[in-house]
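Fill in residues.
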């Protein structure tokens, strides 16, 4: 009979309603309570907080500027990203381009246009137009060279669009003014 009593005792255990919780154990917050909890100012309030926020933003911008100048992929704009664009940058930076002399030539033309001698102004005009023609030819040549090198390296179907224009625009800039900064020296052409 003792066995029967043990069975009834185990089946009739009393459950304390306060010790067990059903659900999450707290009431669901109202929409107004959630919105108030999430509400915070978009900009820092107070002079010290604003100064700290400006310092953080300046630090982030400086890091992005340095990263872009060094050619770090995550800081580059979309037009400069990818291995093909890096190849183009390295190839253009390794060669001498006629377009690099654009700014010095333009300064010379401005200085020469001040002289009020018709013959000198005419010669300056012809030199300027001759320089433009040679610079355009150089851009066309670098565009073809880069396209052929990329086709050789990546295959004809895998070459990005706009590479000729990208190479021409980089070739028209003076080397110290290029962004991202040149990573190689003159004559160190990238391998195909």
């Amino acid at each position: 009979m003792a066995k029967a009593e043990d069975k009834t005792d185990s089946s009739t255990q009393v459950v304390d309603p306060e010790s067990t919780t059903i659900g999450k154990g707290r009431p669901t917050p109202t929409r107004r309570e959630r919105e108030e909890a999430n509400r915070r100012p978009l900009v820092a309030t107070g002079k010290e907080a604003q100064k700290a926020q400006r310092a953080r933003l300046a630090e982030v911008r400086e890091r992005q500027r340095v990263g872009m100048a060094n050619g770090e992929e995550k800081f580059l704009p979309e037009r400069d990203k990818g291995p093909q664009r890096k190849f183009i940058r390295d190839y253009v930076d390794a060669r001498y381009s006629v377009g690099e002399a654009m700014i010095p030539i333009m300064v010379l033309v401005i200085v020469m246009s001040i002289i009020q001698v018709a013959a000198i102004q005419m010669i300056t005009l012809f030199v300027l137009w001759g320089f433009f023609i040679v610079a355009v030819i150089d851009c066309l040549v670098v565009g073809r060279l880069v396209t052929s090198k990329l086709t050789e390296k990546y295959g004809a179907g895998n070459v990005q669009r706009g590479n000729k224009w990208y190479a021409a625009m980089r070739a028209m800039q003076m080397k110290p003014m290029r962004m991202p900064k040149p990573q190689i020296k003159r004559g160190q052409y990238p391998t195909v």
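The chain is about 60% helix and 0% strand.
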